[in-house]
């Protein structure tokens, strides 16, 4: 008997609701058109800047509870103000629900403009600590002064030489526990998906007690997977390696901030954020989302590319155990892209191409391509 899955659909803000609707109908169609596949029982929830006035928060408690209660969540883009306003909803979800793994596959699809071909990388990023945990202290505060005094008292050779009234401080926590589980996730992912190599990335030559710890843990975990090749790369060298010879890499696992940077670099290898899906996964739940933002200037115009959100839904289907339906969906997306007919303006050779279709119409073409 086909299984019924429960899923939360967070509709987001800006162009989010349009993208959410496009992705939902593609996922439902993929399940319907795949023999033996189950179905999804959806719960729609709101989040983002559009509901701040009515709810007093960009992430209502009922939305978080729905994410907890359902098998998986598909989240459309949400705006994060730069420099002011509320903190990232994405960070809130990751920390509140302990979604410790950010999974970002980057794969070439023929028909997408790129300087590279045949890219097939998976980036596994630790989600809950490092500088991205946001443990910061503002310049001029008592806390900064005390931190500087403490560091200078305890350290004999590494002094902070700037005064507290002109120095902001961020703390970089790296733990054995969080390092171990993210590296193990990477190796388990490689094992499950038939991948051959895991590369762990840090800057252990300089930050010996944080990145050095991550490196030591990665080496220890790697010994549990003798059938999977493993190697180390320093973050700066990794950036150069990915630009020069990305074909040498398979699964890449790294810390939070480095992972955020590398994910955009890897997306650039395959044509940009418009085709870059993502997932945030923990031991008891998962949220699937595109890497790109909400593009509020295009809100309501039925114009933006739904590919990344739809491919994030493909990852969700795979997570739910619907691998065949996930492949049905991915194959249909690939077919529409390579044909180049029913795609949005950004996927045309010229962005002002009058034959470009809208968000909803591209989703309809993907559904039609499923046969």
Description:
This protein has twelve helices and twelve strands. With 371 residues, it is of the alpha/beta class. The chain has three domains: 203 residues, Isopropylmalate Dehydrogenase (3-Layer(aba) Sandwich); 110 residues, Rossmann fold (3-Layer(aba) Sandwich), CATH 3.40.50; 35 residues, no CATH class. It has a ten-stranded mixed β-sheet with strand order 2-1-3-12-11-4-5-10-8-9, with helices on both faces. The protein has a two-stranded antiparallel ribbon with strand order 6-7. A hairpin with a 4-residue loop joins strand 11 and strand 12. The longest helix is centred in the N-terminal third of the chain and has 18 residues. The mean pLDDT is 94.
């Amino acid at each position: 008997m086909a299984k019924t899955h429960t899923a939360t659909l967070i509709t987001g803000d800006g162009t989010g609701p349009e993208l959410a609707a496009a992705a939902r109908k593609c996922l439902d169609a993929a399940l319907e058109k795949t023999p033996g596949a189950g179905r999804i029982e959806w719960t729609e929830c709101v989040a983002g800047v559009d509901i701040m006035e009515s709810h007093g928060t960009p992430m209502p408690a009922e939305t978080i509870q729905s994410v907890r209660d359902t098998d998986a969540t598909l989240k459309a883009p949400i705006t994060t103000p730069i420099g002011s306003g509320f903190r990232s909803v994405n960070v809130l979800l990751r920390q509140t629900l302990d979604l410790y793994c950010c999974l970002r596959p980057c794969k070439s699809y023929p028909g997408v403009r790129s300087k590279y071909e045949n890219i097939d990388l998976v980036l596994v990023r630790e989600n809950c600590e490092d500088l991205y945990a946001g443990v910061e202290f503002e310049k001029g505060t008592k806390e900064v002064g005390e931190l500087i005094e403490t560091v200078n008292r305890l350290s004999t050779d590494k002094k902070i030489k700037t005064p507290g009234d002109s120095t902001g401080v961020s703390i970089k926590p790296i733990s054995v526990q969080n390092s171990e589980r993210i590296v193990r996730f990477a190796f388990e992912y490689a094992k499950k998906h038939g991948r051959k190599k895991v590369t762990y990335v840090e800057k252990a030559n300089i930050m010996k007690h944080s990145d050095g710890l991550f490196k030591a843990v990665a080496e220890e975990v790697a010994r549990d997977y003798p059938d999977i090749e493993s190697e180390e790369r320093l973050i700066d060298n990794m950036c150069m390696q990915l630009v020069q010879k990305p074909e040498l890499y398979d699964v890449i696992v790294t810390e939070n901030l480095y992972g955020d940077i590398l994910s955009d670099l890897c997306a650039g290898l395959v044509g940009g954020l418009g085709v870059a899906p993502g997932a945030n996964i923990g031991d008891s739940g998962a949220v699937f989302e595109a890497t790109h933002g909400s593009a509020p200037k295009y809100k309501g115009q039925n114009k933006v590319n739904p590919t990344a959100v739809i491919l994030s839904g493909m990852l969700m289907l795979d997570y739910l155990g619907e691998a065949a339906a996930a492949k049905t969906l991915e194959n249909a997306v690939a077919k529409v892209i390579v044909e180049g007919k029913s795609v949005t303006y950004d996927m045309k050779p010229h962005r002002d191409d009058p034959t470009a279709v809208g968000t909803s119409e591209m989703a309809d073409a993907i559904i039609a391509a499923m046969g």
